[in-house]
Amino acid sequence: MEQGGGRGPGVVAVTGISGWLGSRLLSRLSRGDGVRVIGLDERRPMRLDERARYHRIDLTEPTSDGALARILEKERVEVLVHAAFRDDPTSDLELDHELETIGSLHVMHACAAAKVKRLVVASSTMLYGPRPDNPNFLDETHPLRGHPDAHAVRDRVEMESLLSEWAQRHPDVEVTVLRTCWIFGPEFWNRVVAYFALPVVALPLGYDPLLQLVHEEDVLRAFEQAALRPHPGVFNVVGTGVLPVSTLLRLGGRRVLRLPVSLLSRLAHFPSQTQTGDPPAAFYDYLRYLWVADGRKAWNAFGEPHYSTKEAWISFVSSRRMRRYR
Amino acid sequence: MDERDRPSGQQGDADTDAELQAVREALAELRRELRTRFLRTSESDTDSDRRIDWNEVLISLRRRAATLGMSERSGEVDEFGMDEVVLRRARPLLELLYERYWRVDLAGLANLPEQGPCLLVANHSGLLPWDGLMLAHAIERRHPSGLRPRFLVADWLMTLPFVQPYLARLGGVRACRENAERLLESGHFVVAFPEGVKGAAKVFRERYRLKRFGRGGVIRVALETGAPLLPVGIVGAEEAHPILFKWRPPVGIGVPFVPVTPTFPWLGPLGALPLPSKWVVRIGAPLRLDPLGPGDAHDELVLSRLTEELRGEIQALVDAGLRARESVWA
Predict the structure, then answer these.
(1) How many domains, in total, are found in chain B?
(2) Residue B42 pLDDT > 70
(3) Considering CB atoms only, which of A136, A206, A310 is closest to B162?
(4) How many Å apart are CA B126 and CA B261, to the nearest integer?
(5) pLDDT tens digits, residue range B67-87?
(6) Which residue of B has its CA nearest to A288?
(7) Does residue B117 have a cis peptide bond before it, meaning omega lies within 30 degrees of 0?
(8) For residue B10, is it within any domain?
């Protein structure tokens, strides 16, 4: 349990254990000895690691901060990993906002009340926003400009600004923010992954930006380390290397359909509105402009990622192939 | 057929040499016959081959067209998106433009350090970054280090549809302080055009008169990274796309103005081809920044003085280049 100088935490709580990140992190952390793991979610997940204790908490409820603080105090939680974010935005914009922004605020208040030592928050490099005037590598100090039309991104930008304000008022809590780029791997699944898994992938005509991916294994490793050892600050958790979108798709054997942006947005408008509540241009801008993050700070803190962008993509593609013939 | 039957039938009582000899002869005859038949058929094949096989021609043309585009690009790019495979394909074309089309006269290569980092600052002209491409090509092919310099490209061009994927693969990088610093820190040669859009959009009658240099960004980057700063004068790129006047369309069409050149937009897309002017490139001695260091990078007075000094040196190099040229075309 002890590595280096510091003693590892005794009790780690994880919010959002129904989601991919929360559930995988929970089972990873409970495998380590000397760590007691508390799982928090709105509903009990179907598969719950038997070493983990489960507490029900709905972060969208107005008094959930008090309820969460009581749980954290009773279990003497030292580290809280806040992963209760949607893998995908839903068309219920208000509920998404209640969960991602207000829910995170509740988590912060509960942490302050229960005197939690460390708070680890899951965020995304999508928050930097795809902009034509972005430098090729965005470091952690770059302003979070987000995207005006993507409500999930907007909510999380607001969450991060609340978090940084809160962190200044509570210097006794170590705050770690891990911003991940698009996650690919054999297991992880969200709308972005589903889009790239289509046999024919539509891309904006005339653009071929550099993309950056991270493998799910590297994401989990970074979160695990951030939970077990003090790493205060903001980190971009990204894979090494970049590749143009078209090259990725060619490596994956996907067919590419190039369409003008206006036509593409119009075609995708209806399905996109019903699924995510956002106009599709918000998503396609991420396939038009650069939003590559500089991961050197995280690589120094958590070690070099095991997978580069290309390897993460190939890991995803090969796992899909295996599934097809299973 | 009977030649075959005979040896097998007579194998049992083959006791005389004559019999064996007959078998051998028959086999030899068979072999000869087979060979002549085979040769005859192959001869007739080559006959038909001499006629042009249009199918073959079409297939090879298609293959050639595919390699001209980017369909066979590599699966690896560097961190700024430069693609070695695309570059290898483009080099003959760049060399042709360099040697035959613009007949670039290059001097002052010895002023470059043997290794990066190094910041080259040049005058800018022409809406398409031919000057950056040519300078990068010249240094890559003629400098002993063989390093390919990265040229910084204005934002609007770096995100222009259809142009953007190619520029990044050929070594273009969006012009901003973060990118320049990162490139210099990793030991690259970097070509900057601080005139920016103002330089690219110069009309013909203002040619070779340098515009204001941004806000001292190049000097600041050089001071902060400690990279040597070399002025470069490029003559000839102005005549490749001479802008007669800027036409501002009464209705917004997404661009601030339409450049009107002798060929564009009159000839349509053909008019976007550059004219074969004669180019002269002069690389000057490094600007002296000796007593100054990263601490002075935020002293505005120092920055503006050095920026003006740099602009003067580049203007002098441009003027020298103009004198070295007999005419626009020779």
Answers:
(1) 1
(2) no
(3) A206
(4) 11
(5) 544 444 557 888 998 988 888
(6) B159
(7) yes
(8) no
Which amino acid, A164?
S
CA-based angle A205:A211:A217, to the nearest 5? 140
Chain A interface disruption, residue of B78, B156, B164, most A CBs within 10 A: B164
- What ipTM does the predicted assembly reach? 0.85
Domain A11-184+213-238+292-306 of CATH type 3.40.50.720: yes
Say whether residue A263 is in contact with chain B using an 8 A CB cutoff: no
Asked, for residue B180, whether it belongs to a domain, the answer is: yes
Q: Do the chains contact at B79 and A242, CB–CB below 8 Å? A: yes
Which helix (H) or strand (E) is A325 found in, with range? none
Phi, psi of A258, deg, nearest 5? -95, 125
CATH code for the domain in which residue B238 is found: 3.40.1130.10
CA nearest to A156, candidates A177, A172, A135, A140: A177
Measured in angstroms, the CA of B223 and the nearest CA of chain A are apart by 20
Could you tell me if residue B73 is inside a domain?
no
From residue A65, alpha-carbon distances to A54, A82, A102, A124, B289 in Å are: 17, 13, 10, 24, 58
Query: What whole-number distance in Å separates Cα of residue B200 and Cα of residue B20?
Result: 92
Instruction: Tell me which amino acid residue A67 is.
Output: A
Among the ranges given (B22-36, B43-57, B188-202, B284-298), the one the predictor scored with the smallest mean pLDDT: B43-57
Residue A251 at interface with chain B, using a CB cutoff of 8 Å: yes
A136:B159 CB<8 A: no
How much is the pLDDT for A163? Answer: 96
Supply the range of the domain harboring residue B303: 78-95+106-324
**pLDDT for B294-324, tens place per residue?**
878 788 888 888 999 999 999 999 999 999 8
Pick the closest to residue B190 from B158, B152, B234 (CA basis): B152
**Residue contact A133–B176, C-beta within 8 A:** yes
Residue B3 lies in a domain: no
B168 contacts on A by Cβ (under 8 Å): 208, 210, 244
Tell me A8's DSSP state: P
What is this structure's pTM?
0.82
B161 to chain A: closest CA residue? A206
The span from the CA of A156 to the CA of A84, in Å, is: 12
Report chain A residues whose CB lies below 8 A from the CB of B176: 133, 135
| Distance in angstroms (rounded) separating the CA atoms of residues A139 and B169 | 23
Q: Does A5 touch chain B (CB under 8 A)?
A: no
DSSP of B194-248: TTHHHHHT--GGGTT-PPP-TTSHHHHHHHHHT--EEEEEEESHHHHS---EEE-
Of B77, B158, B176, which is closest to A242 when you measure between CB atoms?
Answer: B77
Whether residues A207 and B165 touch (CB distance < 8 A) is answered with: yes
Q: What is the pLDDT of residue B72?
A: 47
Q: How many H helices and E strands in chain B?
A: 12, 9
Which residues of chain B does A291 touch, with a Cβ-Cβ cutoff of 8 Å? none
Identify all chain B residues contacting A246, using CB atoms and an 8 Å cutoff.
165
Per the CB < 8 Å rule, is B182 touching A210?
A: no
Q: Is A247 in Cβ contact with B164 (below 8 Å)?
A: no
